[in-house]
């Protein structure tokens, strides 16, 4: 029984050590003094994917990486950059995967085409099945 619990204990211990012991960036959890800039930053953060969690936006994630990304967004918005410029900079730095709405390119084409192809395949299969039942 103890041998079976050892891998679970090691996994939990390694997950606990995954967080950084460094203090969070000052702007990771602090809002900007200008409400308009904070609204722009918050709206942008909702559209950016946490690279650690991958299923949450950086606005919702508690991961250290998401906190650093929130701080970067707030710093750049406070410096006067537009949200589109910040998004472009983050995509250049982290890749297209950082956004929930990746641009159409040769690399991201499968993300855009696969749902349509699967839908067409499903309709084709359904059509053939209904033809068999009618005949």
Features:
mainly alpha, 135 residues, elongated, 5 helices
Quick recap:
This protein is mainly alpha-helical and about 140 residues long. Helices cover about 60% and strands about 0% of the residues. The chain has five helices and no strands.
Task: Specify the structural class.
Answer: mainly alpha
Number of helices: 5
The proportion of residues forming helix, as a percent range, comes to 55-70%
Number of strands: 0
Alpha carbon gyration radius: 22 Å
Q: Give the CA-based shape.
A: elongated
The ordered H/E elements are: HHHHH
Instruction: Please give the alpha-carbon distance between the first and last residues.
Output: 60 Å
Strand content: under 5%
Indicate the low-confidence ranges by residue numbers: none
Layout of SSEs?
Elements: H1 2-16, H2 35-46, H3 64-78, H4 83-94, H5 109-134
Helix pairs in contact: 2-3
Task: Describe the protein's architecture and organization.
This protein has 135 residues and is mostly helical. It has helices spanning 2-16, 35-46, 64-78, 83-94, 109-134. The chain is elongated. The termini are far apart. The mean pLDDT is 81.
């Amino acid at each position: 029984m103890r041998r079976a619990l050892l891998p679970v204990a090691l996994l939990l211990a390694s997950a606990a050590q995954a967080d950084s012991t460094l203090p969070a960036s000052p702007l990771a959890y602090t809002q900007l003094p200008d409400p308009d800039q904070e609204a722009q930053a918050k709206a942008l953060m909702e559209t950016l994917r946490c690279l650690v969690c991958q299923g949450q936006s950086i606005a919702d994630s508690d991961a250290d990486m998401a906190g650093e990304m929130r701080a970067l967004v707030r710093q750049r918005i406070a410096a006067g950059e537009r949200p589109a410029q910040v998004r472009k900079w983050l995509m250049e730095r982290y890749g297209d995967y950082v956004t929930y709405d990746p641009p159409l390119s040769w690399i991201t084409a499968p993300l855009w085409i696969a749902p349509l192809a699967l839908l067409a395949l499903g309709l084709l299969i359904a059509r053939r099945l209904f033809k068999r039942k009618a005949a």
